[in-house]
Amino acid sequence: MLSPVSLWAQSSSTSTTNSSTLKMEEVKKSEEKESDIDKEITDARMRAQLGSKSRWSFKSSLAYSGGSVEEPFSGVRPNYRASASVESMTSLSGDVGINYRMGERDNFSFGTGITIIDPLHGDITKPAQDTRTGRSGSLSRYEVSTPYLGWSRGYRAWDSQMISSFTYSHATDSDSVNITKTFGAASFSQTILANLGNSGWTGGTSLTIGKSFYTGDVTDAAIVKRMKAGLYKRTDMTAGLFPFLQYSFNDRYSFRTVFGYFQFSRYEGYDDNVQIEPYQSVGTGISITRDIYLYPNIQFTPKDIRADRTNVALSANINLF
Question: Which domain holds residue 56?
Answer without folding.
Answer: 43-320
